[in-house]
UniProtKB/TrEMBL annotation:
<dbReference type="InterPro" id="IPR001564">
    <property type="entry name" value="Nucleoside_diP_kinase"/>
</dbReference>
<dbReference type="Pfam" id="PF00334">
    <property type="entry name" value="NDK"/>
</dbReference>
<keyword id="KW-0460">Magnesium</keyword>
<dbReference type="InterPro" id="IPR023005">
    <property type="entry name" value="Nucleoside_diP_kinase_AS"/>
</dbReference>
<comment type="similarity">
    <text>Belongs to the NDK family.</text>
</comment>
<dbReference type="GO" id="GO:0004550">
    <property type="term" value="F:nucleoside diphosphate kinase activity"/>
</dbReference>
<keyword id="KW-0808">Transferase</keyword>
<keyword id="KW-0067">ATP-binding</keyword>
<dbReference type="GO" id="GO:0006183">
    <property type="term" value="P:GTP biosynthetic process"/>
</dbReference>
<feature type="binding site">
    <location>
        <position position="112"/>
    </location>
    <ligand>
        <name>ATP</name>
    </ligand>
</feature>
<feature type="domain" description="Nucleoside diphosphate kinase-like">
    <location>
        <begin position="1"/>
        <end position="138"/>
    </location>
</feature>
<keyword id="KW-0597">Phosphoprotein</keyword>
<dbReference type="InterPro" id="IPR034907">
    <property type="entry name" value="NDK-like_dom"/>
</dbReference>
<keyword id="KW-0418">Kinase</keyword>
<feature type="binding site">
    <location>
        <position position="91"/>
    </location>
    <ligand>
        <name>ATP</name>
    </ligand>
</feature>
<feature type="binding site">
    <location>
        <position position="85"/>
    </location>
    <ligand>
        <name>ATP</name>
    </ligand>
</feature>
<keyword id="KW-0546">Nucleotide metabolism</keyword>
Length: 138
């Protein structure tokens, strides 16, 4: 069993797509073991994306991520990290495959509707960034 962090980003929440995206996640067989809606501050978004601090898109990315509410959740399942990344599709929706969340809903490389952890170490940091053990079921 593995856990990964999912964020349904402001572009998707503001278009009322959280339910449709959660349906895709649950239909894929991943189990939601924690979930909440939050509106991040700039500092919270910067802390979450600190690994991208030196990237040219860091300021835009963190401004976007605190522009409105997001739905954060922890997904559990065998190989959950890789399975969720496959379900999300490529970071740039122009390159995303049919049937993926980003192909269906993402607007561009920044407003790409969802985030998922990319490795066990980042999943551990990211799940702990938003959730305490008391907020995780199972
Ligand atoms: P995410 O999986 O949340 O991780 C970092 C985010 O940076 C990524 O999704 C994109 O939404 C965003 N981003 C914005 N511009 C770029 C870019 N040029 N290359 C990669 N990621 C970008």
């Amino acid at each position: 069993m593995e856990r990964t962090l999912s964020i349904i980003k402001p572009d998707a929440v503001s278009r009322n797509l959280a339910g449709a995206i959660l349906n895709m996640i649950q239909d894929s067989g991943l189990t939601v073991v924690a979930m909440k809606m939050i509106h991040m501050s700039k500092a919270q978004a910067e802390g979450f994306y600190h690994v991208h601090k030196a990237r040219p898109f860091f300021a835009d990315l963190t401004a976007f991520m605190c522009s409105g509410p997001v739905v954060v959740s922890i997904l559990e399942g065998d190989n959950a990290i890789a399975r969720y990344r496959t379900l999300m599709g490529a970071t740039n929706p122009a390159n995303a495959e049919e049937g993926t969340i980003r192909k269906r809903y993402a607007l561009d490389i920044e407003k790409n509707s969802v985030h998922g952890s990319d490795a066990p170490e980042t999943a551990a940091f990211e799940t702990a960034y938003f959730f305490s053990n008391l907020e995780i079921v199972g």
